[in-house]
Amino acid sequence: MTLKTLCNREVLVAAKDDSILEAAKLMREYHAGDVIIVEERNGARYPVGIVTDRDIVIELIAKEIAIDSVTVGDLMCRELVLAREEDSLFDAIKLMRQKGIRRLPVVDLHGALAGIITADDLIELTTEQLRDIAGLIGREQALEKQIR
To answer: In terms of residue numbers, what domain contains 140?
Structure first.
């Protein structure tokens, strides 16, 4: 399975000069923990950073920095870790674990933002797969009872 078929295509995005308040409102409205900072080029969005709800709390609120004194571009993590649509789910999990991140933007062949995969998504996908495996065991047992 590749990320092309698994990633969430509905990604919250912001421009570098957007306010922290705008980003926080987006996260609240869509019940998300991040906003991907993008630059628009030739009609496509290219990811250049990420701001998480944790960034806002740890870097601004806990340090008593006024949120209206910085933009998402000021706060964003610039060392953005990206995955490609062609990457496998297992490659994404390995990368997220290696980098210690919970959110992984996914880009297309040209580097434009295509989607995102999160730790929550991975838990949901894994749970579905485990449920399928458990169903297989039950189905096998039921068939065995019919035969014997």
So the answer is: 3-147
